[in-house]
Write a structure and sequence with these properties.
By secondary structure, this protein is an alpha/beta fold. The chain has an 8-stranded mixed beta sheet with strand order 3-2-1-4-5-6-10-7, with helices on both faces. It has a single domain, classed as Ribonucleoside hydrolase-like (Inosine-uridine Nucleoside N-ribohydrolase, Chain A, Alpha-Beta Complex), CATH 3.90.245.10. The protein starts with 5 loop residues before the first strand and ends with a helix. The protein is built from 12 helices and 10 strands. Bound molecules: beta-D-ribofuranose (BDR) and calcium ion (CA). Calcium ion (CA) binds next to loops.
Length: 315
Amino acid sequence: MTHSPRKIIIDTDPGQDDAFAILLALASPEDLDVLGVVAVAGNVPLPLTELNSRKIVELSGKTATKIFAGCDRPLKRKLVTAEHVHGKTGLDGPDLPAPTMPLQTQHGVEFIIETLRREPAHTVTLCPLGPLTNIAQAFLQAPDVVGRVQQIVLMGGAYFEVGNITPAAEFNIYVDPEAAEIVFKSGVPLVVMPLDVTHKVLTTRARVEAFRGLNTEVGRVAAEWADFFERFDMEKYGSDGGPLHDPTVIAYLIRPDLFKGRHINVEIETQSDLTLGMTVADWWGVTNRPANALFIGSVDADGFFDLLTERLARL
Ligand code: BDR
Ligand code: CA
């Protein structure tokens, strides 16, 4: 049976793993119609995340893609960045040329609002790969769009893996917990890719060599990103490679059968200094709080890398 591609907006703070997600989406036009890529402050400040977004899209060759800049800081807090993971530029590793693609003049949040109002209700899926600032800001500015979103599939949070930026919190949620709270309480159907699943998709040597073995520019760059990115987590966790967090969001939209999770209640801690940004996930169903998210816990990692490599080969 044929189906029309699903319309998505990618909200991102690249980041090498964000880059894999963007490339996977742009390489999959039969599955996904990327209406726009919106940068947010996160791994590095906004001027770098928007620049990196343009570099990545330009590398893909899909230069008709529209790229926007959204919010340059969290709703209520000072920006926390992650150069210790992603390098000074946010996209350290291979040298990429300065992009020639333009940045759209419209603010990214305006773009999200306008698109949700223009497209038929429940036909646009939001794919946040960084702090949830832009999405929350759109919902605050235009409450009428909340009920029009088809689904939000996001990378963020953790339960069994607990935290990566603090002992209790995952980076994307920690950076803007107030924004995360708005999104998790919005009533929009949510699919969450926490560290519990992303720590299972590791860039092992064989997988990175499969990227390199594509013998294309995209394959070479992808391998060099993975080479750079993995060092941090390999040292920290003693793992066989780096976790490719963000492309799980896009892979889920293409091949949901690769993933398994539970429909559960997830709340965001916004008060405690010690556990700020924690995703309090009722995995074991010990409260009667209503489910608000499909919280993913496992993945067919080989299937995920096969899909990613096969799609990158097209670019
Ligand atoms: C998330 O934080 C960022 O560093 C990555 O790009 C990913 O989105 C993982 O905690
Ligand atoms: Ca990210």
